[in-house]
Amino acid sequence: MYRVKEIEKNNKRLWLRLAIPVVATLALFMYATLFVHLPSIRNSLLEQKRDAIRDVSQIALSVIKKCYQDELKGLLSRKEAQKKAKDLVRSIRYGSDKKDYFWINDMQYKTIVHPYRPDHEGRDMSNLVDANGKYFIREFVKIIKEHGAGYGEYMWQWKDDPNLIVPKLSYVSGFKPWGWLVGTGVYYQDIDAEVSLLIKEQLKITLIILFIVFLLVSFSVWQSRQASLQLRKSKENLYVTLNSIGDAIIATDIKSKITMMNPVAAKLTGWEEEEALGKSIDEIFHLSNGDAINIVESSIEDSSNKQEEFIHHGNDILISRNNEQCHISSRSAPIKKRSGKIAGTVIVFNDITKQYELEDQLRQSQKMEAIGQLAGGISHDFNNMLAGIIGGAVILSEKIGENYNLTRHVDMIIEAAERASMLTSKLCDFSRKGKILSSPVDIHTSIKDTCIMLEHSVNRSIRIVTELNAKNSIVIGDHVQIQNIVLNLCLNARDAISGKGEIKISTETVELDSFFCQNSSFNVKPDSYVEISVSDNGSGIESKNLKKIFEPFFTTKNVGEGTGLGLSAVYGSVKDHNGDIHTYSELGKGSVFKIFLPLSKETIRIEKNKTEIKKGTGCVLVVDDEPIVQKMVEDMLHLLGYKTLVASNGKEGVEVYKKHGDKIDLVFLDMIMPEMNGHDVFYALMEINSDVKVLLASGFSFDTSISKIIKDGASDFIKKPFHYIELGKAIADILDKKTDKIDI
After folding, report:
1. Mean pLDDT value across residues 63-91
2. pTM of the full predicted structure?
């Protein structure tokens, strides 16, 4: 028994004797092998770090691209978008000690962002050299210009320690839209530290070689756990990043099955990520045209040509799980492994419903503007004809005197022409060729005057209620236009009520903020406004007609019951007053029209009596290309006691004034003429005689060109058609030098 134990003991000693040199030999072999392969280990680690800093640079670029997308959408100005991008990039840290960072320069060598060297920001770095005398900033700019991205080596401070200068490898990539280059890097000192750490680990293994199997297994388990933790951490970082992005993101595998989606995508689609995982893309990302599968397939098919670039798929309608719809803009890109093999597709999409609505409002506004220009042109020509009709009838009435049988027919002509003039006035209002908006108007007075007229127009079974609560009710505008706004809205409300009902007119003083103004289709600015609300409990307006109600000649009434110009005139008048109009309506529940007009602190002026006939003497040059108007004005002037000279166009008018200017007391000048219009004629007359007296005339009530001419010295303005009493007063006031300048 002792012998056996001794043999066993000897065998153990033998094993130890044999093991020690074997272990020592193995340890030396491993140690030697380690140092032989040390350069290749370092190169391999360096290659990994090169790939890592190239990949991590995409974090900063994705942040910058997101801010750039906000600029393209009009959500931010370029300055705001760039500031947001700079602040985000400046705050990003990564690496094991969370001290690695990104920096940004522009293509003119100026530093834009440097988290650890803010003293460099805003400075020209073209002459900056490192410890080896290298102009590394120039080299980076050259890399971007020639290759778009690449690596560069230089000497730089150790992270946040400016006194320690060490070698560094950086990866720079360009962002062309803003002319930026974004850089990040890795310190060779970090790489060497990792190599040293690897050597120490290997030395530890050689020292405990007797437990080599255990250590290898343990090390393998440890590595697996570390990889799992790192993978989990990477996934967590990815989810945090994706969750903070405003875009909706869905990722799929090669078979179009969903592998990931962020909260924005979950909100828009109506599917939680846990429910969506593993489902087909067309089941979750449900488009009106059914192109979800095609998006994935086209992204994969085009990847070989476009190399990870996003493919834009335009705009579409996304139908959510609960059948809600929103307009989206989508783009996609293939997901590639490091080997280049395609693993799936990522789809990025945005909710552009608000943008779509604003664009629709813009198109509607442009259509209304085009119709307005057409209406304005028609009304101008029609007003010229009406001017001849009314003028001729007035002169005829004056000449035939008291003959009742004749004057009653003349009065019928005048009345019919004036009613036609009111129709063209509505067209002018819609085309925004409105009256001179320079007088303070009390909204409450206009509403009260309108209510008096409505007493004769509205059935007694319909009650009219007023609640005039606005503390300030003075606006700069035209009393008649404002009356017409309220009158047209009330008459529309009357027609929508069958039997008993109520029309309510109310006012409030409100403040319109920048958000309201930015989302308005009218040109309104943040300020104090008076809100005029006209509501009824009538039949309401169908949703399909709400966008059309302000279009000229649009009406749902029977033939002969309406012109379709009432609400178009309201639209034009509101725009003329720099206001806004909003409409709310439900079938069977009535409608509410809210008008917003900018308030004024001016007081009300009392207008002078205009019924007095003012005759005079002197010579008037009539410049008008319409023969009817020309003859009518000439006859009116003779009736008022003036001599006349006549010119059939602008050039002829200038020539007549050159010859007879010393005899001419005033020029009656039409604004709309071929070849040489009233604007050009006025300035030509001013060159001949800077004190020339000019009475402007137009079928349009007023526009910006007339406003400028009056500022530059024109005496007054008269709208066609006009009564000879108006013409006489205007000329007399000018010649008597009593004309008050028109407030612009």
Report:
1. 91
2. 0.36
Angle between helices 724-735 and 353-400 (to 10 degrees): 90
- Phi, psi (deg, nearest 5) at residue 618: 130, 180
DSSP letters for 305-318: HHTTPPEEEEEEEE
CA atoms of 348 and 326, how far apart (whole Å): 15
CATH superfamily of 246-351: PAS domain (3.30.450.20)
Q: Give the distance from CA 97 to its chain's centroid.
A: 43
Measured CA to CA, the distance from residue 396 to residue 488 in angstroms comes to 35
**89's tokens:** 């990039």
Average pLDDT over residues 227-248: 72
Query: Cβ contacts of residue 684 below 8 Å, gap of 6+?
Result: 650, 654, 676
CATH number for the domain running over 619-735: 3.40.50.2300
- Please, are residues 154 and 170 in contact by the beta-carbon 8 Å criterion? yes
Give 232-277 as a DSSP string: HHHHHHHHHHHHH-SSEEEEEETTSBEEEE-HHHHHHH---HHHHT
Topology of domain 40-195 in CATH is Beta-Lactamase (3.30.450)
Beta-sheet strands, E only, within 356-481: 439-442, 462-468, 474-477
Cα-based distances in Å from 158 to 89, 131, 175, 621 = 20, 13, 27, 87
Task: Specify the residue for token string 């050039």.
Answer: 651
Strands 111-113 and 103-106: antiparallel
- Going by pLDDT thresholds of 50, 70 and 90, the confidence category of residue 414 is low
In a 3-state reduction of DSSP, which class is residue 420? helix
Single-letter code of the amino acid located at 295: I
- Residues spanned by CATH 3.30.450.20 within the chain? 40-195, 246-351
Q: How far apart are CA 402 and CA 157, in angstroms?
A: 106
Per-residue pLDDT tens for 592-601?
Answer: 999 999 998 7
Peptide bond into 263 cis (omega under 30): no
Q: Where in the chain is the domain with CATH 3.40.50.2300?
A: 619-735
Residues 6+ apart with CB under 8 A from 288: 316, 317, 318, 319, 325
Q: How far apart are CA 679 and CA 705, in angstroms?
A: 7
d(CA 261, CA 135): 45
434-598 CATH pick, 3.20.20.10, 3.30.565.10, 3.40.50.2300, 1.20.1310.10: 3.30.565.10
Task: Name the 3-class secondary structure at 93.
Answer: coil
Residue extent(s) of CATH 3.30.565.10 domains in the chain: 434-598
Mean pLDDT (the chain, rounded): 78
Q: Residue 403 has which token pair? A: 């003959």
d(CA 704, CA 434): 11
